[in-house]
């Protein structure tokens, strides 16, 4: 008899734990989390900010927003240019990313908390340095160059690293050169 | 009658390679007199003691995953890693039972019990809580703040020293102090955050003429 009572107690305890766990999962799902969206399609066209004999500097602004339900922190943000020398080897490429709300020139991203619905703007700067000191000539054959914007987020959930992609297009480079 | 004067002292960025007592001597020796009180920001004391970690170094426990969901979003404990960091020092089970006790106490109208039982829950600053390059770190509360304050006082030959936790939201607390000081009184003086925000790099504040003002206040009270 006692054994049946014990079994019933164990089953009841397991059942209560299972129900509490399900309720918790439901609560967590309803509570949600931060969700950052990098609005790569809404970026400005790249502008030529400076040109010298050997260097051309292009710049664009990219908006982003926390579309989630919770506060989220962007701990780090950096650009990664993807142009292998097999494809193009006339320039050395330097990239920099800054938060326009907290300008700095050291390529350091200072961690920022964003409330739900809040966002900001990234400034991506690409400097192309000619290996032969002939930047205008070299840029005539510049191809489309993908740039990954890599960011690390931490919020209620575990930290993660995501990427968004923009492209410095050959047509944008040519157009900017024509204007200057 | 002597006036209290709060003098923030600018320093370089301090790291775990620094000793806070040496730093105070280096930057503030010429400014401090025998009647003065030296206050040091708690997060900077903690950094010089290497009391910080990074989210990447932590493995969240199930207790942290559970509890962070019930903390309001603005607090350091709402973050999975802020909560886990505090648990690393306090212990997962202590934090869990403290949390349950705090919840029960709240039902009868008593707030802040969890933070009283688990000091690291209130002292730990999540990422963004400190200036670069520590903005990507979770900074704990300082170890032995009373001892640190005593060492500062002894080295500087001043009236007293304290380690304080002050922010721009008009929250001020003295975590540790040298003997004979009244922490509540000092917290009131620091309420407007003379340490400034992180980027101002002023982790030391000297309260000039503190001893004289205390004496004068006491003698006024006695006369009444």
UniProtKB/TrEMBL annotation, chain A:
Keywords: Membrane, Transmembrane, Transmembrane helix. It comes from the Bacteria. This is Uncharacterized protein. The chain crosses the membrane at residues 6-28. It comes from Megasphaera cerevisiae DSM 20462.
From TrEMBL, chain B:
GO terms for molecular function: ligase activity. InterPro entries: F420-0_gamma-glut_ligase-dom (IPR002847). Pfam families: F420_ligase (PF01996). Keywords: Ligase. It comes from the Bacteria. The keyword Ribonucleoprotein does not apply. The keyword Signal does not apply. Residues 9-156 form the Coenzyme F420:L-glutamate ligase-like domain. This is F420-0:Gamma-glutamyl ligase. It comes from Megasphaera cerevisiae DSM 20462.
